[in-house]
Write a structure and sequence with these properties.
Number of domains: 2
Radius of gyration: 23 Å
Structural class: alpha/beta
Subcellular location: Cytoplasm
Catalytic activity: (2R)-3-phosphoglycerate + ATP = (2R)-3-phospho-glyceroyl phosphate + ADP
Keywords: ATP-binding, Cytoplasm, Glycolysis, Kinase, Nucleotide-binding, Transferase
Number of helices: 14
EC number: 2.7.2.3
CATH superfamily of the largest domain: Phosphoglycerate kinase, N-terminal domain
Oligomer: single chain
Subunit structure: Monomer.
CATH class of the largest domain: Alpha Beta
Helix content: 25-40%
CATH architecture of the largest domain: 3-Layer(aba) Sandwich
Strand content: 15-25%
Largest sheet: 6 strands, parallel
CATH topology of the largest domain: Rossmann fold
Amino acid sequence: MPAFKTLDHLTDISGKRVLVRVDLNVPVADGKVTDKTRIERVAPTILELSNKGAKVILLAHFGRPKGEPVADMSLSPIVSSVESVLGHPVHFASDAIGSQAADAVAKMNNGDILLLENTRFHKGEEKNDAAFVAELAKNGDIYVNDAFSAAHRAHASTEGLARHLPAYAGRTMQAELEALEKGLGAPARPVVAIVGGAKVSSKIDLLMNLVKKVDALVIGGGMANTFLAARGTLVGKSLCEHDLAETAKQIMIEAATAGCAIVLPEDGVVAREFKANADNEVVDINDIPEDAMVLDVGPKSVEAIKGWISRAETLVWNGPLGAFEIAPFDTATVAAAQHAAECTRNGKLVSVAGGGDTVAALNHAGVADDFTYISTAGGAFLEWMEGKVLPGVAILHEQK
């Protein structure tokens, strides 16, 4: 059993008012939702509660209105998309608290679904203000958090409510936490992490945490150049944070102390221009031309990475291995992702991935559905990988 309460612990909730924190911070263009993924992720929780006769009251934020009502950040235009995903009518209240919210809740029948207005229209939301939390709590008997993506924020609707009402994890939150536990909490070993992306500076905490938890750390993308340069390799005109050489050295020292293998590229695909289908060649990592830049890891490196994936029981992935947005510099990322997917399909690997570029890269490789779990949580996923405490998760553990 998980160390927190889930919907499995909720019985006889017919007629109960259930406040459900969801993530509806979806992309919108010209008043229309352009990607319904986050709505689809929370649909199982909403429908399960509705089907059990609960009065389902949705709490969510949208954008950064800074504690004031902003017309362009209203949740009202999202209602139709929520209805289309759920296949169920969704009512809307033009405030998250006060008489408008209370009146809308009072009119609900068992099984009804109500979306309250953007919680961030009130300053008390991001301040986790006790008075605002109390106002939100007036409209509920039970609190369910199904927004892992907002769990790294100690806000009124993500953390404060769990101190006022019986608190439970929704199905998406539960799936995320169970997947992350398999990824780094109590993983099957060996554990291999792939970390890519442009800069070491944005992932120092992440790398420092991972070397203490995984058996091998594969470093790709632009950040690999910083590690290569730190050990004395000339990287030409490649993206490289030379000022972080000492940081890179320290990470390698920490890895050696912890018994974590650092896997750097053995060869690279270099070009003189950063554009699609630029003239390119494969070179040994020690022979990078002065006037060229590394835009992807080479075939030797890909085979080495695939070897590490094959030996692993658990894979955690954040960031592409090269400039996957432009061909042919997506080759290594696609090859490694497809190999990880094959190992997962064959039941040999638990694969957990997350981060915006990572999700895009795995979709590009056509394997997103084959990984054990892909997190769309962004900042919360990264903070979890960094080993930080997520307030919205910690409070659920406390409530058990």
